[in-house]
Amino acid sequence: MSLVVLNHYLDLTEAQVVRSFLSAHGLHASLPDENYLGVHWTRLFALGGARVHVPRSMADEARALLANVPPLRDPPTPFPRRWFRKRVCALFVVLVGG
C-alpha cells in the first residue's frame, strides 16, 4: 500500500483533526511526524508542516471530503476606523488627565 501526502498543515492540532475526520469517514489517514512534532514543535516550519498521509487509492475521495468542509477559522473582521479613533482619543484623555 503506497501512501501519498494529502496536505501539509502548519498547526499540528489541525492536522490531527483532519486525520480524525478522514478516519471517521472510513479512510485510513496517518500523521508520520506526529510524535516528533509533538515534542519538537519548533521544527514544524523546517519540515514544511505536519503531513497527512492517505493511501494512493483513497486520495481522491479524501480530497473530495475535505473540499466540502468549511474552513476551520473565519478571517478576522476589521474594526471600523472611527471605532479605533474614538478609543484612541478616549485613552489619550485618560492618560493625559483631561
How would you describe what is shown here?
With 98 residues, this protein is of the alpha+beta class. The protein has one domain. Helix content is 45%, strand content 13%. It is built from 4 helices and 2 strands. The protein has helices spanning 12-24, 34-39, 59-67, 81-96; strands at 3-9, 50-55. Strands 1-2 form a two-stranded antiparallel ribbon. The longest helix is centred in the last third of the chain and has 16 residues, at 81-96. The mean pLDDT is 86.
Q: How many individual helices? A: 4
Strand content: 5-15%
Pattern of helices and strands: EHHEHH
- The overall number of domains is 1
What is the first-to-last residue Cα distance?
Answer: 73 Å
Low-confidence stretches: none
Instruction: Calculate Rg over CA atoms.
Output: 21 Å
Shape: elongated
Q: What's the total count of β strands?
A: 2
Described by strand count, sense and barrel closure, the largest sheet is: 2 strands, antiparallel
| Average pLDDT, all residues | 86
Name the helicity range: 40-55%
> How do the strands of the widest beta sheet line up side by side?
1-2
Summary, kept brief:
With 98 residues, the protein is an alpha+beta fold. The chain has helices spanning 12-24, 34-39, 59-67, 81-96, and strands at residues 3-9, 50-55. The longest helix has 16 residues, at 81-96.
Secondary-structure map:
Layout: E1 3-9, H1 12-24, H2 34-39, E2 50-55, H3 59-67, H4 81-96
